[in-house]
Specification:
The complex is a heterodimer of chains A (257) and B (322). With 257 residues, chain A is of the alpha/beta class. In chain A, 27% of the residues lie in helices and 30% in strands. Chain A has helices at residues 38-54, 70-78, 97-108, 130-138, 194-202, 240-253, and strands spanning 2-6, 9-11, 19-20, 25-26, 34-36, 58-65, 83-88, 115-119, 142-151, 157-163, 168-175, 178-182, 206-209, 219-225, 234-235. The longest helix of chain A has 17 residues, at 38-54. Chain A starts with a strand and ends with a helix. In chain B, 25% of the residues lie in helices and 28% in strands. Classes of the chains: A alpha/beta (257), B alpha/beta (322). The complex binds flavin-adenine dinucleotide.
């Protein structure tokens, strides 16, 4: 069984993120920490769990991104992936999910993957498209927001629970090969093992240049800003002690306390 | 324009008709025909309801559409796009909505923008705005070309008021998908266990986010909750994913929807999926150490502070006051 997992490097939302209006994206500064997209961590863990239960599976991880993105592939190997494939792009900026998905689909085509996993959403652009787009380009069936999966005994189909809204799950059966996007909470991503950390150090990544991709019509960023609705409420100022007292007064006034 | 709606057991919440407002506002003064496609096994009732808004409805019916079957629905929608050649295809923003929108846009080679919250006309083009980076930043995107697909954030637009103004009901046409059998087999739906937590009945909800840092700090959240006569502990998805609290505490699109008198968000960033479940709260207090946290945009009272410092002080000062 061959599994491919898509990994994206994203800026840590908690980092001090600043806007670069001329480039229509966020500034690349030393102040920003980059890490693996949270949902991709769950996708990777699920792939590693499948390999552990089947015994004879390989887990490749692929990332499309700038040179810096190699770090998430290394992290992927540390967490148990077999191989890392890096499709290199120049500096970060807004990239249409269509472009990313094309590059991954072109790589995956004819390589015989039985299962492709991606995170349900990228935390930076929040487009939720790359997974289903890859499936479309490859003509694979797709299920999104998967919170449970089980590969059938004959390995020709997979039984999944997809999360809908408000606590409702749907059970679906898909033929293999197929693509799933994985939702957080499906498992508990592991920490790297020492042996895999050492292996990641030694092991080279497969590096490919993105080349030119025909991606048809795309969307372009024309504006970027902090939400203008921000802060309609009252900012409670002062020392921590004063803030606590002020809040208690407000809660009393409103008869909440 | 085409509006695509899927159903579960042939029904859907009325809030889905927000999409009609979005389409009508997008059309503006331009003459643009809006058609609503509703997929299900037998969707005559909901289709009639939709037609009251004054637009024609196509009821797309097949046993494999009784439960959400995004690929199957999208494949028929691709045929409809070929026939009708709409300027825009509009879908509600859910994960399967994004799947449908992506699949249609891939087939037609046109752009797709998900999670649209608003739009502005800018000369000849329309700029569609959406959140990125957990709602910290908003971007405006212009789709290139003749056609585009969108998913629209629930709650961003209002269901049109049909009592105001005169709307002649549209026609309902029934259609069966032309494609072969569905690849995916939807077997059915199931509710996740609710549990005994009475979030909906509480006057006050003290909600914990990943910012609490450790499971042990839930004790702080619980201690704050005990200051109030009828308070419960809520949580963001991240807290539930870490198994710090059971699922029954989760608030948001994939958890509970609550509207207490007081909602106090502690260490919650304010992602739109969380806000969807608590924006009806009467008073929102947010405690977060990041002054740019998105939760502050919907908070009535903003406290930029480390919660491990602030909450113990709150408890202490309250004890002294009594
Ligand atoms: C399909 C889908 C459905 C989803 N459904 C839901 C849902 O139903 N409910 C939900 O909540 N989420 C949901 N999510 C996840 C959502 O997108 C966010 O990832 C999640 O809400 C973030 O949780 P958080 O705010 O606790 O964590 P984070 O986003 O990591 O935020 C932690 C916050 O804590 C602050 N902080 C850190 N340390 C401290 C400190 N010491 N003191 C004060 N503040 C501190 C940080 O500044 C930060 O703002 C869903 C996502 C998807 C893709």
């Amino acid at each position: 069984m061959k599994i491919l997992v898509c990994l994206k490097q994203v800026p840590d939302p908690e980092a001090n993120i600043e806007i670069d209006s001329t480039r229509g994206w966020i500034c690349e500064s030393d102040g920003i920490a980059y890490r693996m997209n949270l949902y991709d961590e769950y996708a990777l863990e699920e792939a590693v769990l499948i390999r552990e239960s089947l015994g004879d599976a390989s887990v490749d991880v692929i990332s499309v991104g700038s040179e810096r993105a190699a770090a998430v592939l290394k992290k992927g190997i540390e967490k148990g992936a077999t191989n890392g494939i890096h499709i290199i792009l120049d500096r970060d900026r807004y990239r249409s999910p269509g472009l990313i998905a094309r590059l991954i689909a072109d790589y995956a085509r004819d390589r015989g993957y039985d299962l492709i996993l991606a995170g349900v959403m990228a935390e930076d652009d929040m487009q939720c498209q790359v997974g289903p787009l890859i499936a479309s380009y490859l003509g694979l069936p797709c299920a999104v927001s998967v919170v449970r999966e089980k590969i059938g005994d004959n390995r020709s189909e997979i039984d999944v629970d997809c999360e809908l809204e408000g606590g409702v799950n749907e059970t679906l059966i898909l033929p293999l090969p197929c693509l799933l996007t994985i939702q957080s909470g499906i498992n508990r991503p592991r920490y790297p093992s020492l042996s895999n950390v050492l292996r990641a150090k030694e092991q080279a990544l497969t590096m490919l240049s993105a080349g030119t991709v025909l991606s048809g019509q795309v969307e372009t960023v024309v504006s970027i800003c902090y939400p203008e609705s921000a802060v309609k409420g009252t900012i409670i100022k002062g020392t921590p002690e004063q803030k606590a007292e002020k809040l208690l007064d407000i809660l009393h006034e409103k008869s909440l306390l | 324009m085409l509006i695509l709606i899927d159903t579960i057991n042939n029904t859907t919440a009325d809030s889905i008709f927000e999409l009609i407002s979005f389409a009508e506002m997008l059309a503006g003064t331009e003459q643009s025909r809006i058609r609503v496609i509703i997929a299900g096994e037998n969707v005559a009732d909901i289709s009639r309801k939709a037609a009251r808004f004054g637009h024609d409805v196509i009821a797309l019916e097949h046993p494999d559409l009784r439960f959400p079957n995004p690929d199957f629905f999208a494949d028929e929608a691709i045929r409809l796009v070929d026939e009708i050649k709409p300027r825009y295809v509009i879908i509600q923003h859910t994960m399967r909505g994004c799947q449908i929108a992506s699949r249609i846009s891939a087939a037609g080679g046109f752009p797709c923008i998900t999670g649209v919250e608003s739009f502005i006309h800018d000369g000849d083009s329309v700029v569609f705005c959406k959140s990125i980076i957990n709602g910290k930043i908003t971007v405006g995107l212009v789709p290139g070309g003749e056609r585009a697909a969108f998913t629209v954030l629930p709650g961003a637009f209002r269901v049109p008021d049909i009592t105001a103004g005169h709307r002649v009901p549209g026609q309902v046409l029934h259609r069966t998908p032309a494609g072969g059998p569905s690849h995916c087999r939807p077997l059915g739906i199931r509710e996740s266990a609710g549990g005994e937590v009475r979030l909906e009945e509480s006057d006050v909800i003290i909600a914990a986010g990943r910012g609490i840092g450790t499971k042990e700090n839930l004790d702080l959240i619980r201690a704050v909750a005990r200051l109030f006569p009828n308070a419960a502990v809520g949580a963001s998805r991240t807290v539930v994913d870490q198994k710090w609290l059971p699922y029954a505490h989760q608030i948001g699109v994939t958890g509970r929807t609550v509207a207490p008198k007081l909602y106090m968000a502690c260490g919650i960033s304010g992602a739109q999926q969380h806000i969807a479940g608590m924006k009806g709260s009467q008073t929102v207090v947010a405690v977060n150490k990041d002054p740019h946290a998105a939760i502050f945009s919907i908070a009535d009272y903003i406290i930029v502070e480390d919660l491990t410092v602030f909450l113990p002080l709150l408890i202490e000062k309250h004890a002294k006051k009594r």
